[in-house]
Amino acid sequence: MEVQRLTGVFGAEVDVGDVRRLDDGAFAELRSVVCEHEVVVVRGQSLDVTEQVALSRRFGPAGPVPFIEPSPDHPEVIKVLKEASDGAAFNFGGAWHSDFSFQSEPPSFTLLHAIDIPPYGGDTLWASMTAAWKHLSDDRRAELSAITAVHTARDAYSRKMQPLHSGLSGMNIVCDDTANDTEVHPLVVTHPETGRQALFFNRAYVRDLLGVDAVRLQSLLDWLHAHTTDARFTLRHRWSVGDLVIWDNRSTQHYALNDYAGFRRELHRTTVAGTRPTA
Ligand code: SIN
Q1: In angstroms, what is the span from residue 96 Cα to ligand 1's centroid?
Q2: pTM to 2 decimals?
């Protein structure tokens, strides 16, 4: 498999032909390229929802999808859709996050397939959390390794957030009280497949840090956000119709830019069940 690196830090593009026709050996190689490079771009695909689900299931069974009503075409697919008439105010995924990190077993991989793309804008950014970990001093590593992070969907999907989501006419996002639940995960995790260490942090869902006193909490949250999204650790993808991007949620976080008001953007997303993050 020809692997073209996209930055000096992470990300790769591969040419695998038609992803629907990968034999078991080629698929295993693709999966290991995703774990190794964390974000992988595969161009020129044309998957209907059933074909995307079939590919996604080769990575593993689907993970649970809370709050977002799935596509009527398939219960394992969500349509990430903003209509041209939806205006500029809000877009799905428009804050740095790792998919559903508030779950006890957050997704391992996400597959996102571009169906309709604005003439400009609507790029997605990823940040490598292994790179963010690597660039820490020994002292900082020791400090962060002692901390447990509290993840919650409270500020994304609790009832007070409903008006925001209701602005997206093409997505049915239903906020409810389960968004107030919390889940704790180590701040420093070991990837179950590569054995690499990474920071498991994102500003959208991490709301508290156990083992940090109240005086320091906000400044450490702000520092973690600034450090983990430092431009040195990021990759930006300009979408074309037919792109399939597969990423590893265990070692990245991502952000969907909202700079295409007046244009339609549709991508189909599947998430693969993961395991409980471990230190
Ligand atoms: C997401 O956060 O899963 C959506 C990303 C995007 O629309 O670019």
Answers
A1: 10
A2: 0.97
